[in-house]
Amino acid sequence: MPEFFPSLPEVYVQPGESRLVTAPSLMKTLLGSCVGITFWAPHLGIAGLCHPMLPHCPDHRLGRTSVVAGRRYVDFAIRDLAQQLDAHGARRGYVHVKLFGGCDVLPVSNQSGRPTVGRLNYEAALRILESEGFRVSASCLGGSRGITIFFNTESGEVFLRRLSEPCA
After folding, report:
1. Does residue 130 sit within a domain?
2. What's the rounded mean pLDDT across residues 61-86?
3. pLDDT value at residue 57
4. Domain count across the chain
5. Are the C-beta atoms of 97 and 37 separated by less than 8 Å?
6. Is the pLDDT of residue 166 over 70?
7. What pLDDT does residue 1 have?
8. 117-131 helix and 74-87 helix, angle to the nearest 10 degrees
9. First-last CA distance in the chain
């Protein structure tokens, strides 16, 4: 995929990381049960990508966790990136948000009816994005195959590449 954007510098976002860029870039990450959330404010020339791994930062750690550790959680990562966008003057109603991942990558006997980590992640993301004033304009959620996402921060386009084999 990077061959389509030879002039854009690549920014790889690892699990548990968030990045905000102020120059055109190709942001990418590999997702399984984690979610990848892209934020694009074209009127300001800024964009962000977060890659949280678990739905909620445990209550006993709120207020006592570092920003780096907190970014592993969907709720913390969204609110952290939202604050960074706010600091740059982004108005949440004008930020384009896309949500990906939340796959079922581990073999699970779901006879208990309990949701998988992937599902918990994307449900938390949808709920928190809405409560923070963001509208999701595109998404690709669930399934059994991981994906790599490529986010062109110049155009706002997100390209997906599915893994060839199911993760389970």
Report:
1. yes
2. 87
3. 86
4. 1
5. yes
6. no
7. 46
8. 30
9. 25
